[in-house]
Amino acid sequence: MSRKEWPLWEVFIRGQHGLNHRHVGSLHAPDAEMAIHHARDVYTRRKEGVSIWVVKSNDITASSPSEKGPLFDPAETKAYRHPTFFDIPDEVGHM
Amino acid sequence: MYAQMVKSEGMKSRDEMSPEELAFQDRIDRGEKIEPKEWMPEGYRKTLIRQIGQHAHSEIVGQLPEGNWITRAPTLERKAILLAKVQDEAGHGLYLYSAAETLGVSRDDLMEKLHSGAMKYSSIFNYPTLNWADMGAVGWLVDGAAIMNQVPLQRTSYGPYSRAMIRICKEESFHQRQGYAIMMKMAAGTPAQKEMAQDALNRFWYPSLMMFGPSDAESVHSAQSMAWKIKINTNDELRQKFVDQTVPQAHYLGLSIPDENLRWNEEKGGYDFSEPDWSEFFEVIKGNGPCNRERLGARVKAWDDGEWFREGLYAHAEKAAHRRMAATTAAE
Ligand SMILES: [Fe+2]
Ligand SMILES: [Fe+2]
Fold it and tell me: ipTM value of the model?
């Protein structure tokens, strides 16, 4: 027995309504073509999507949990990036 | 449940916890999700692998008792429905294996542990499915009991597990309803058919109650798992909820629950009922249930017989990759 595990793939699916492909989970498959076939069976049994992407899990570079602070904290003090930061008088109407 | 008697480890009080463990517990208490690469206590990781692994194995082995009736469904429509249901269970197993793998265990390792008996699956799948009425009873009672456990687990602290449970719960309701629909049909059929429905209920009632596991109100393992939010309710709470929900459904069918002690208890707002025979449960867990050998045998056979096919696909994938490489080099 050669005992070689098929590689792991991450699966992304675009739903019916034209939104971005979204990560839905992962699966094992010997190659990209089979990964698409498997993804169809595992993740779209109820018409969850109109398009599938698969990416080898090993090819994904992820930010590390320890970088969470430096990466995301700076946005915390920039409330002015949100429209609700600005008070516009009712008389002005919808904006 | 689908994960019964999962051993947890490392119940610690706050003053026994390291600063890292304290910060971790605080995150869980705040309702934050723990994600794969983040720091976690070794006990949390190990307990989750056991629990998610056992849950996954249950979904996979759980295909067998129903798979038994796909070729003998009474109509083409029933056959298509049962096939779809069993296919869902395969999917559930796969979602859960993926979730377990994010904790650093390999799929092959989990398979190996299932096949060697080192990891368990739910006791319920070691009971036989003798006739078509059992397809009704399994969907209604077994999936019904599973739902009881899985709905709260959508809120579990481990992100990948929680997301798998959310997907699963979306699909489970169909399972229970198709089972109940079979029971309705049979209960409204000829006296012989109704008798079959009652007989199926009689046989599956106590094994379904066993799915929740023995009382764990006093268990240290459960206390730790609950603190970590990988267990949300006690076994008794879930069993009570299941009984309260199921009894009226049986009455609607005109069937009776096989329990002389079943009585509505006004004070607690729930039914009093008899405990299943726990010695039987422990025998089944040990491997001495009516179908343990058959189920595991079928699993191992499917895995071994599939070996050449998995290998073949791998070999094909490698050849194709080499060809692609050669083509790119030639073009340069
Ligand atoms: Fe399931
Ligand atoms: Fe199910």
Answer: 0.89
